[in-house]
Design goal:
The protein is of the alpha/beta class. The termini are far apart. The protein is flat and about 110 Å long.
Length: 274
Amino acid sequence: MQAAEQNYEIYDKELLAIVKALVKWRQYLLDAAESFEVWTDHENLKYFREPHKLNRRQARWYLKLQDYDFMIKHILGKTNTKADILSRKDQVNTREDNKDVQLLKDKMWTRKTTAKVTMLGQKIVTEGDIIKKIQKNNTREKEVVQALEKNDGLTWEEDGVTYMEGRVYVPNNKGLREEILREHHDPVDIGHPRQNRMMELLKRTYWWPGLKEDVKEYVQRCFKCQQNKVQHQKKAGELHPLEIPQGPWQEISIDITGPLPKSNRMDAIVVIVD
Protein backbone atom coordinates (compact mmCIF):
# COMPACT_ATOMS: atom_id res chain seq x y z
CA MET A 1 0.00 0.00 0.00
CA GLN A 2 1.09 3.53 -0.66
CA ALA A 3 1.68 5.93 2.21
CA ALA A 4 -1.61 7.77 1.63
CA GLU A 5 -3.58 4.52 1.35
CA GLN A 6 -2.37 3.41 4.78
CA ASN A 7 -4.37 6.30 6.29
CA TYR A 8 -7.69 5.21 4.75
CA GLU A 9 -10.59 4.15 6.96
CA ILE A 10 -10.83 0.38 7.39
CA TYR A 11 -13.87 0.08 5.11
CA ASP A 12 -12.04 2.05 2.41
CA LYS A 13 -9.05 -0.27 2.72
CA GLU A 14 -11.24 -3.34 2.28
CA LEU A 15 -12.96 -1.87 -0.78
CA LEU A 16 -9.58 -0.81 -2.19
CA ALA A 17 -8.44 -4.44 -1.97
CA ILE A 18 -11.40 -5.51 -4.13
CA VAL A 19 -10.80 -2.71 -6.65
CA LYS A 20 -7.11 -3.58 -7.00
CA ALA A 21 -7.94 -7.28 -7.41
CA LEU A 22 -10.43 -6.52 -10.19
CA VAL A 23 -7.92 -4.26 -11.95
CA LYS A 24 -5.24 -6.96 -11.66
CA TRP A 25 -7.47 -9.61 -13.29
CA ARG A 26 -9.30 -7.21 -15.57
CA GLN A 27 -8.48 -9.09 -18.78
CA TYR A 28 -10.24 -12.19 -17.42
CA LEU A 29 -13.15 -10.61 -15.55
CA LEU A 30 -14.24 -7.76 -17.80
CA ASP A 31 -17.19 -8.75 -19.99
CA ALA A 32 -17.12 -12.26 -18.54
CA ALA A 33 -19.82 -14.57 -19.85
CA GLU A 34 -21.00 -15.37 -16.32
CA SER A 35 -21.17 -13.45 -13.06
CA PHE A 36 -18.29 -14.16 -10.65
CA GLU A 37 -17.99 -14.05 -6.86
CA VAL A 38 -15.68 -12.05 -4.61
CA TRP A 39 -15.08 -13.79 -1.28
CA THR A 40 -14.28 -11.63 1.74
CA ASP A 41 -14.25 -12.10 5.50
CA HIS A 42 -14.57 -8.39 6.29
CA GLU A 43 -17.95 -7.20 7.49
CA ASN A 44 -16.71 -3.61 7.33
CA LEU A 45 -17.86 -3.59 3.71
CA LYS A 46 -21.42 -3.46 5.04
CA TYR A 47 -20.78 0.27 5.39
CA PHE A 48 -21.26 0.59 1.64
CA ARG A 49 -24.58 -1.29 1.68
CA GLU A 50 -26.18 1.87 3.07
CA PRO A 51 -26.60 5.13 1.13
CA HIS A 52 -23.76 7.61 1.74
CA LYS A 53 -22.41 10.76 0.17
CA LEU A 54 -19.34 9.48 -1.66
CA ASN A 55 -16.09 11.36 -1.63
CA ARG A 56 -14.09 11.72 -4.86
CA ARG A 57 -12.03 8.59 -4.22
CA GLN A 58 -15.08 6.43 -3.53
CA ALA A 59 -16.82 7.89 -6.59
CA ARG A 60 -13.90 6.78 -8.80
CA TRP A 61 -14.09 3.28 -7.34
CA TYR A 62 -17.85 3.24 -7.91
CA LEU A 63 -17.33 3.93 -11.61
CA LYS A 64 -14.72 1.20 -11.90
CA LEU A 65 -16.97 -1.39 -10.21
CA GLN A 66 -19.76 -0.70 -12.71
CA ASP A 67 -17.70 -2.45 -15.42
CA TYR A 68 -17.88 -5.85 -13.68
CA ASP A 69 -20.69 -8.32 -13.04
CA PHE A 70 -19.97 -9.85 -9.64
CA MET A 71 -21.45 -10.78 -6.27
CA ILE A 72 -19.77 -10.29 -2.88
CA LYS A 73 -19.91 -13.35 -0.65
CA HIS A 74 -19.05 -13.07 3.04
CA ILE A 75 -17.26 -15.99 4.68
CA LEU A 76 -16.03 -16.41 8.21
CA GLY A 77 -12.43 -15.46 8.88
CA LYS A 78 -11.57 -18.85 10.37
CA THR A 79 -12.59 -20.56 7.14
CA ASN A 80 -10.56 -18.14 4.99
CA THR A 81 -7.19 -19.18 6.34
CA LYS A 82 -5.16 -18.88 3.14
CA ALA A 83 -6.14 -15.26 2.49
CA ASP A 84 -5.82 -14.51 6.21
CA ILE A 85 -2.16 -15.56 6.17
CA LEU A 86 -1.37 -13.11 3.35
CA SER A 87 -2.96 -10.22 5.24
CA ARG A 88 -0.77 -10.82 8.28
CA LYS A 89 2.74 -10.82 6.81
CA ASP A 90 5.38 -10.26 9.47
CA GLN A 91 7.44 -7.88 7.33
CA VAL A 92 4.68 -5.27 7.21
CA ASN A 93 5.56 -2.63 9.79
CA THR A 94 3.12 0.24 10.25
CA ARG A 95 4.64 1.66 13.43
CA GLU A 96 6.82 4.03 11.44
CA ASP A 97 3.90 5.37 9.39
CA ASN A 98 3.62 9.17 9.20
CA LYS A 99 6.94 9.68 10.95
CA ASP A 100 9.21 12.52 9.81
CA VAL A 101 6.82 13.43 6.97
CA GLN A 102 7.25 16.92 5.55
CA LEU A 103 3.68 18.05 4.92
CA LEU A 104 4.54 21.13 2.84
CA LYS A 105 7.40 20.27 0.47
CA ASP A 106 10.05 22.84 -0.42
CA LYS A 107 8.85 22.94 -4.02
CA MET A 108 5.45 24.15 -2.82
CA TRP A 109 6.95 27.43 -1.60
CA THR A 110 7.66 30.26 -4.01
CA ARG A 111 10.94 32.08 -3.64
CA LYS A 112 11.23 35.84 -3.90
CA THR A 113 13.21 37.03 -6.87
CA THR A 114 14.22 40.44 -8.13
CA ALA A 115 14.90 39.29 -11.68
CA LYS A 116 12.90 40.83 -14.51
CA VAL A 117 10.55 38.31 -16.06
CA THR A 118 9.21 38.67 -19.60
CA MET A 119 6.46 36.74 -21.37
CA LEU A 120 5.87 36.94 -25.11
CA GLY A 121 7.95 40.11 -25.27
CA GLN A 122 5.81 41.95 -22.70
CA LYS A 123 7.01 42.98 -19.27
CA ILE A 124 5.07 41.52 -16.39
CA VAL A 125 4.18 44.17 -13.82
CA THR A 126 4.44 42.85 -10.29
CA GLU A 127 2.13 43.87 -7.47
CA GLY A 128 5.07 45.54 -5.72
CA ASP A 129 5.56 47.92 -8.68
CA ILE A 130 1.91 48.98 -8.53
CA ILE A 131 2.05 49.53 -4.76
CA LYS A 132 5.06 51.81 -5.19
CA LYS A 133 3.16 53.90 -7.75
CA ILE A 134 0.17 54.11 -5.39
CA GLN A 135 2.44 55.28 -2.55
CA LYS A 136 3.73 58.13 -4.72
CA ASN A 137 0.18 59.36 -5.40
CA ASN A 138 -1.24 61.20 -2.37
CA THR A 139 -4.59 62.19 -3.90
CA ARG A 140 -7.74 60.89 -2.22
CA GLU A 141 -11.28 61.11 -3.54
CA LYS A 142 -14.05 62.61 -1.41
CA GLU A 143 -15.63 59.24 -0.73
CA VAL A 144 -12.33 57.86 0.60
CA VAL A 145 -11.62 60.93 2.76
CA GLN A 146 -15.04 60.63 4.38
CA ALA A 147 -14.47 56.93 5.08
CA LEU A 148 -11.12 57.71 6.73
CA GLU A 149 -12.72 60.37 8.92
CA LYS A 150 -15.26 57.86 10.26
CA ASN A 151 -12.40 55.84 11.76
CA ASP A 152 -14.61 52.74 11.95
CA GLY A 153 -11.78 50.26 11.37
CA LEU A 154 -12.93 49.40 7.84
CA THR A 155 -10.78 52.09 6.21
CA TRP A 156 -7.20 52.87 7.20
CA GLU A 157 -3.83 54.03 5.91
CA GLU A 158 -0.59 52.11 6.20
CA ASP A 159 2.80 52.90 4.62
CA GLY A 160 1.26 55.45 2.30
CA VAL A 161 -1.44 53.06 1.06
CA THR A 162 -5.15 53.42 1.83
CA TYR A 163 -7.14 50.23 2.48
CA MET A 164 -10.90 50.00 2.00
CA GLU A 165 -12.26 46.93 3.78
CA GLY A 166 -8.90 45.20 3.34
CA ARG A 167 -8.49 46.09 -0.34
CA VAL A 168 -5.97 48.56 -1.74
CA TYR A 169 -7.48 51.87 -2.80
CA VAL A 170 -6.18 53.01 -6.20
CA PRO A 171 -6.03 56.83 -6.50
CA ASN A 172 -7.77 58.65 -9.33
CA ASN A 173 -4.96 58.25 -11.85
CA LYS A 174 -6.14 57.14 -15.28
CA GLY A 175 -2.81 55.61 -16.30
CA LEU A 176 -2.44 53.67 -13.05
CA ARG A 177 -5.97 52.29 -13.12
CA GLU A 178 -5.59 51.42 -16.80
CA GLU A 179 -2.42 49.48 -15.99
CA ILE A 180 -4.17 47.50 -13.26
CA LEU A 181 -7.10 46.72 -15.57
CA ARG A 182 -4.70 45.57 -18.28
CA GLU A 183 -2.79 43.28 -15.92
CA HIS A 184 -6.05 41.61 -14.85
CA HIS A 185 -7.32 41.07 -18.39
CA ASP A 186 -4.64 40.87 -21.11
CA PRO A 187 -1.99 38.38 -19.83
CA VAL A 188 -1.99 34.94 -21.42
CA ASP A 189 -2.39 33.11 -18.11
CA ILE A 190 -5.56 35.10 -17.32
CA GLY A 191 -7.09 34.67 -20.76
CA HIS A 192 -9.20 37.81 -21.38
CA PRO A 193 -11.98 37.13 -18.84
CA ARG A 194 -15.44 38.58 -19.18
CA GLN A 195 -16.79 41.32 -16.92
CA ASN A 196 -17.85 39.22 -13.92
CA ARG A 197 -14.67 37.14 -13.82
CA MET A 198 -12.42 40.18 -14.24
CA MET A 199 -14.34 42.01 -11.52
CA GLU A 200 -13.86 39.05 -9.18
CA LEU A 201 -10.09 39.02 -9.83
CA LEU A 202 -9.73 42.76 -9.19
CA LYS A 203 -11.83 42.82 -6.02
CA ARG A 204 -9.48 40.36 -4.38
CA THR A 205 -6.87 43.12 -4.06
CA TYR A 206 -7.97 46.53 -5.39
CA TRP A 207 -10.85 48.97 -5.11
CA TRP A 208 -11.77 52.42 -6.38
CA PRO A 209 -15.07 54.26 -7.00
CA GLY A 210 -16.62 53.25 -10.31
CA LEU A 211 -14.57 50.06 -10.57
CA LYS A 212 -17.46 48.09 -12.07
CA GLU A 213 -18.07 50.68 -14.81
CA ASP A 214 -14.35 50.81 -15.66
CA VAL A 215 -14.22 47.01 -15.96
CA LYS A 216 -17.28 46.97 -18.21
CA GLU A 217 -15.82 49.67 -20.47
CA TYR A 218 -12.42 47.98 -20.68
CA VAL A 219 -13.88 44.61 -21.67
CA GLN A 220 -16.19 46.16 -24.26
CA ARG A 221 -13.34 47.99 -26.02
CA CYS A 222 -10.89 45.08 -25.90
CA PHE A 223 -10.04 44.37 -29.55
CA LYS A 224 -9.13 40.70 -29.03
CA CYS A 225 -12.33 40.05 -27.09
CA GLN A 226 -14.36 41.51 -29.94
CA GLN A 227 -12.46 39.41 -32.49
CA ASN A 228 -13.07 36.16 -30.60
CA LYS A 229 -16.52 36.94 -29.26
CA VAL A 230 -18.85 33.97 -29.49
CA GLN A 231 -22.03 34.70 -31.43
CA HIS A 232 -25.09 33.21 -29.70
CA GLN A 233 -27.61 34.51 -32.24
CA LYS A 234 -28.99 32.29 -34.95
CA LYS A 235 -27.08 32.61 -38.21
CA ALA A 236 -28.73 34.81 -40.79
CA GLY A 237 -30.21 33.10 -43.82
CA GLU A 238 -28.90 33.43 -47.35
CA LEU A 239 -29.88 36.42 -49.44
CA HIS A 240 -32.33 35.87 -52.28
CA PRO A 241 -32.02 38.84 -54.65
CA LEU A 242 -34.92 39.65 -56.92
CA GLU A 243 -34.70 38.87 -60.58
CA ILE A 244 -33.77 41.73 -62.90
CA PRO A 245 -36.90 42.96 -64.71
CA GLN A 246 -36.95 42.95 -68.51
CA GLY A 247 -38.39 46.47 -68.87
CA PRO A 248 -39.55 49.59 -66.98
CA TRP A 249 -42.58 49.61 -64.72
CA GLN A 250 -42.64 45.83 -64.46
CA GLU A 251 -41.65 45.89 -60.76
CA ILE A 252 -42.06 48.77 -58.33
CA SER A 253 -40.87 48.82 -54.68
CA ILE A 254 -42.04 51.26 -52.02
CA ASP A 255 -40.24 51.84 -48.71
CA ILE A 256 -41.46 54.13 -45.92
CA THR A 257 -39.06 55.39 -43.24
CA GLY A 258 -40.45 57.07 -40.13
CA PRO A 259 -41.63 58.58 -37.95
CA LEU A 260 -38.87 61.20 -38.04
CA PRO A 261 -38.52 64.65 -36.45
CA LYS A 262 -40.96 66.92 -38.24
CA SER A 263 -39.71 69.12 -41.07
CA ASN A 264 -42.25 71.34 -42.82
CA ARG A 265 -44.95 69.30 -41.08
CA MET A 266 -43.56 66.09 -42.60
CA ASP A 267 -42.28 63.18 -40.45
CA ALA A 268 -41.63 60.33 -42.95
CA ILE A 269 -39.74 59.55 -46.15
CA VAL A 270 -41.26 57.52 -48.98
CA VAL A 271 -38.84 55.89 -51.40
CA ILE A 272 -40.25 54.51 -54.67
CA VAL A 273 -37.94 52.49 -56.89
CA ASP A 274 -38.82 51.41 -60.43
